Amino acid sequence: MIDAMDKAAGLSPDDPVYKARRFRPEFVEGAEICRLSVLTPKHGLGLSTTLRLALARRMAKLNADEVLVADYEAQLAALSPSDELLALSQGATELAEPLASIARHADLITLSPIKATAEDITRLQEAGLDNPQIVAFSELIAFVNFQTRVATGLRLMGLA
């Protein structure tokens, strides 16, 4: 079965790279479970799926992964996002709180994580996010950035 990572990498069941991924089925399954848990969790903690997809699209764009940008854009469009979440997804920075702080943090961790400090977490708290929301948001950031790197690597393997 083709999963989201295969789709992002452009793999099909007859592709050698697709078959190679299945040498470690626990990694294939784990990545898909993780994707679902950060984008569509059972308990959203006040971070809607629409917000999560808007952020995923934003981070995919920051990573210049046009395949994932298109995928997240389609998923987001299916949920009829508000104008504000659409703007967030497209990289806007002039947003109301807490979206402005959320956008700044997602951009920081995606583009230059080494510059992040404890003060950045404090800014999220000051914008109204609680600890469970910050953890869930961090998991989303980690997954989307992981996904873009793995998809890029799989695409490159297909060129060899």
What general form does the structure show?
Answer: globular
Number of helices: 9
Radius of gyration: 16 Å
How far apart are the termini? 24 Å
Level-1 CATH class name: Mainly Alpha
User: Major β-sheet, in short?
Assistant: none
Domain module count: 1
| Strand tally | 0
- Might you state the CATH topology name? AhpD-like
CATH architecture: Up-down Bundle
Query: Regions with pLDDT < 50 over 5+ consecutive residues?
Result: none
Average predicted local confidence, pLDDT? 96
Helix content: 55-70%
Q: Characterize the quaternary organization of these chains.
A: single chain
- CATH homology-level superfamily: AhpD-like
- Proportion of β residues? under 5%
Class inferred from helices and paired strands: mainly alpha
3D structure, described in words:
By secondary structure, the protein is an all-alpha fold. It is built from nine helices and no strands. The longest helix is centred in the C-terminal third of the chain and has 29 residues. It is globular. The mean pLDDT is 96.
Defining key terms:
AhpD-like, 160 residues, mainly alpha, single chain
Write the layout of secondary structure elements.
Blueprint: H1 4-9, H2 16-21, H3 25-39, H4 49-62, H5 66-77, H6 83-89, H7 99-111, H8 118-126, H9 131-159
What's this model, at a glance?
By secondary structure, the chain is mainly α. It has helices at 4-9, 16-21, 25-39, 49-62, 66-77, 83-89, 99-111, 118-126, 131-159. The protein has one domain: AhpD-like (Up-down Bundle).
